[in-house]
C-alpha cells in the first residue's frame, strides 16, 4: 500500500489533526494513521497510486465552496448570518436534508440549544471572526485557493509559504508576538483541509430552550469536547492511532475511544492523545480565538 509521511501534519496541533482527517473526507479511498514518534505525524495511504495525487484530484472548487449549505444565502432557504434565529435554522436544515454537505450545518450549529433571544448555539469550532468575516463560511471562501500539486506537497511536508490571513480561527500557531501587533499568518491548504475535518464532529444539545427557562445552564456540545472536571471548561480531546483508517474507521474510533480510559487506548491502537487549551485574550478588546494543545 503506497504511503506518504506528512511532517507538516503534526498530531499535536488541532488544525493539523483536523486537516489530516479532512483529507479522508475529500477522498474516501484514502486512509490515515500516525507515526509513533515523540511528535507523531500523519501518514496517508491508498490501495493503489499516490495518495497526494488523489488529494489533488479531489480538491474542492471555488463553486463547491460557495454552494455549501452554510452559505449566507442558499437556494432561498433563509439567510444565515452570525446570529441565527431557530426558525431560520429549521428552514435551512429541512432544505439541506440529504445534501452531500449537510454536515456543514450540523457540525457548526444546533437548534437543540436555543438562547433567550431565540438564536441557535454555535459549535466551539464555529467561533466568531473579526470585522466583516464573523461567519465561518465567509472565512473559508476568503482563504480558498486551487493549489498546485507542488503547493499541496509542500504543505504536507511542512515547508509551505504562509499568507497573511486569520484563517478559520482555530490555530494558535497563526498568532505572532504577544508584545506587538504582529499580523496573523496561515497556510490556506491546511486551513481548508481542517474545515472538512469538521465532518465527523457534529454539535448537539439537550433540547434546551432558555426562552422557556429549561436547563438554563446547559451548553451546546460538539463531538470530542468534554469537561476535565464537573463544571469545568470544555476541552476538545483527540487521539493518534497506528492502524490505517478511512473516514468510517476514524468516525467509529471517535465513538469508541474514551480519553479517560487507558484500556480503550490499547484496544483501539491509540498511542497518543491531547486536549485543547483555549487562547487567553490580552484584554476585553481582544477578539482573538485559538486553541493550543496539552498532551494527555
Write a short abstract of this structure:
This protein has 296 residues and is α+β, with helices and mostly antiparallel strands. It is built from 10 helices and 14 strands.
Please tell me about this protein's structure.
The chain has 10 helices and 14 strands. Helix 1 (14-26) packs across helix 8. It has helices at residues 14-26, 51-58, 62-66, 86-96, 103-106, 136-143, 149-157, 188-197, 247-256, 262-268, and strands spanning 3-10, 31-34, 41-45, 109-114, 120-122, 163-164, 185-186, 203-204, 208-209, 221-222, 225-227, 234-241, 270-278, 291-295. A hairpin with a 6-residue loop joins strand 2 and strand 3. It is of the alpha+beta class. The mean pLDDT is 90. Strands 11-12-13-14 form a 4-stranded antiparallel sheet. A 3-stranded antiparallel sheet has the order 1-3-2. A 3-stranded mixed sheet has the order 5-4-9, covered by helices on one side. Helix content is 29%, strand content 21%. The radius of gyration is 19 Å and the shape is globular.
End-to-end C-alpha gap:
31 Å
pLDDT < 50 runs, ≥5 residues: none
Averaged pLDDT: 90
Write the H/E string, N to C: EHEEHHHHEEHHEEHEEEEEHHEE
Class of secondary structure makeup:
alpha+beta
Helical content stands at 25-40%
The fraction of residues in strands falls at 15-25%
Sheet of most strands:
4 strands, antiparallel
Topology:
Layout: E1 3-10, H1 14-26, E2 31-34, E3 41-45, H2 51-58, H3 62-66, H4 86-96, H5 103-106, E4 109-114, E5 120-122, H6 136-143, H7 149-157, E6 163-164, E7 185-186, H8 188-197, E8 203-204, E9 208-209, E10 221-222, E11 225-227, E12 234-241, H9 247-256, H10 262-268, E13 270-278, E14 291-295
Parallel strand pairs: 4-9
Antiparallel strand pairs: 1-3, 2-3, 4-5, 6-7, 8-10, 11-12, 12-13, 13-14
Amino acid at each position: 500500500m503506497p504511503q506518504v509521511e506528512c511532517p507538516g501534519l503534526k498530531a499535536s496541533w488541532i488544525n493539523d489533526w483536523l486537516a489530516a482527517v479532512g483529507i479522508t473526507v475529500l477522498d474516501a479511498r484514502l486512509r490515515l494513521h500516525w507515526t509513533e514518534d515523540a511528535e507523531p505525524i500523519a501518514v496517508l495511504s491508498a490501495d493503489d497510486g499516490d495518495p497526494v495525487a488523489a488529494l489533488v484530484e479531489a480538491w474542492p472548487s471555488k463553486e463547491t465552496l460557495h454552494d455549501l449549505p452554510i452559505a449566507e444565502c442558499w437556494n432561498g432557504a433563509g439567510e444565515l448570518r452570525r446570529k441565527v434565529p431557530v426558525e431560520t435554522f429549521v428552514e435551512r436544515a429541512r432544505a439541506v436534508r440529504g445534501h452531500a454537505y449537510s454536515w456543514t450545518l450540523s457540525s457548526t450549529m444546533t437548534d437543540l440549544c436555543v438562547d433567550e433571544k431565540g438564536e441557535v448555539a454555535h459549535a466551539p469550532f464555529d467561533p466568531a471572526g473579526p470585522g466583516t468575516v464573523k461567519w465561518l463560511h465567509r472565512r473559508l471562501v476568503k482563504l480558498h485557493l486551487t493549489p498546485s500539486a507542488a503547493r499541496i506537497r509542500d504543505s504536507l511536508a511542512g515547508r509551505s509559504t504562509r499568507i497573511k490571513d486569520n484563517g478559520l480561527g482555530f490555530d494558535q500557531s497563526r498568532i505572532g508576538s504577544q508584545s506587538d501587533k504582529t499580523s496573523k499568518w496561515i497556510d490556506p491548504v491546511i486551513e481548508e483541509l481542517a474545515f472538512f475535518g469538521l465532518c465527523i464532529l457534529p454539535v448537539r444539545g439537550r433540547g434546551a430552550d432558555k426562552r422557556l427557562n429549561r436547563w438554563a445552564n446547559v451548553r451546546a456540545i460538539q463531538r470530542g469536547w468534554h469537561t476535565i472536571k464537573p463544571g469545568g471548561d470544555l476541552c476538545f480531546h483527540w487521539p493518534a492511532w497506528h492502524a490505517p483508517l478511512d473516514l468510517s474507521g476514524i468516525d467509529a474510533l471517535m465513538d469508541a475511544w474514551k480519553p479517560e480510559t487507558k484500556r480503550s487506548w490499547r484496544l483501539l491502537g491509540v498511542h497518543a492523545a491531547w486536549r485543547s487549551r483555549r487562547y487567553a485574550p490580552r484584554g476585553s478588546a481582544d477578539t482573538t480565538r485559538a486553541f493550543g494543545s496539552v498532551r494527555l
